[in-house]
Specification:
With about 280 residues, the protein is α/β, with parallel strands linked by helices. The chain contains eight helices and nine strands. Strands 1-2-4-3-5-6-7-8-9 form a nine-stranded mixed β-sheet, with helices on both faces. Strand 8, helix 8 and strand 9 form a beta-alpha-beta unit. The termini are far apart.
Length: about 280
């Protein structure tokens, strides 16, 4: 009987340990200030979610609209994960992949409100953005042993993920671009004539073929993604066509999308069509 209880206890402990994880606020003083009269230090912040088992791989996630996370503490984690990521974040962790929720630096936060006044194309396409992200990557490597870094952007976040894929080169292990923004909505206009052939690290594009968001047409992505495109079929369109509960964010196909991204990170094999 005691052996039976011991076996159950060990099994339960194993389950608990498998889902244990650590969270940490990453905050880096970027050595510049903002403000005219009162000078305020500028910080680059992110939230690290690290799986229980040792890993050297991390995904830097850049959220969709409004694109500014306004991270103050680890308590800001959930509200900055889109539904498809929030519902399935454990898949990354169970597969030994750390998640890093990225923010724009504090001098790009702009005025509070539903419409972002800063952190637009001009910053996201800049060398300064690449350097700000480099500071996070360096901290992940030096303090957390995370040496294989991927960038993942969704919707507005793909303005960052694609420019970083170009500007960071082989400093990252790869990039994933989900529901990519390509102009037509006031954002993503920097991609006119974007040199996709200059990206050094492996690339994956993920898109629902019936994405109805005006700024993220599937046909545009299909035109340049080639064999690096995961086409998502089906889903349940609800609410705002550009929101988190529509085909734009894989409503009804969330898990299969995350599993496809994780599979590519681990194997570099592209699931050409999913969700059928």
């Amino acid at each position: 009987m005691e052996k039976a209880y011991l076996a159950v206890a060990v099994a339960l402990f194993g389950i608990s340990f498998a889902h244990a994880q650590t969270e940490a606020l990453i905050e880096i003083d970027r050595g510049r200030t903002e403000g005219v009269i009162t000078k305020t230090p500028v910080f680059q912040r992110a939230i690290l979610i690290k799986p229980a088992k040792p890993t050297d791989t991390a995904v830097l996630f850049f959220r969709g609209y409004p694109g500014i996370a306004r991270i103050q503490s680890v308590a800001d984690r959930q509200r900055n994960l889109l539904p498809f990521m929030r519902m399935n974040q454990q898949i990354f962790l169970d597969e030994g992949i750390a998640l890093v929720i990225m923010d724009c630096p504090t001098d790009q936060w702009g005025a509070p409100g539903p419409n972002p006044t800063r952190c637009h194309d001009s910053y996201r396409s800049s060398q300064e953005h690449a350097d700000d992200v480099r500071s996070v990557i360096a901290k992940l490597k030096d303090e957390h042993g995370l040496s294989k870094i991927y960038v993942l952007g969704h919707s507005m976040g793909t303005i960052s993920s694609r420019w970083l894929a170009k500007n960071l080169g082989n400093e990252i292990a790869g990039s994933v671009h989900s529901a990519s923004m390509n102009g037509g909505s006031g954002y993503g206009n920097s991609f006119s004539g974007f040199p996709y052939d200059t990206i050094a690290a492996p690339v994956l594009h993920v898109h629902n073929e019936n994405d109805a968001c005006r700024g993220t047409p599937y046909s545009t992505v299909k035109g340049y993604a080639g064999e690096n495109l995961v086409t998502v079929r089906g889903g349940v369109p609800q609410g705002d066509p550009c929101g988190g509960t529509h085909l734009h964010s894989y409503q009804g196909r969330e898990e299969v999308v995350v599993r496809s991204i994780v599979s590519w990170i681990k194997t570099k094999k592209v699931d050409r069509v999913i969700g059928e």
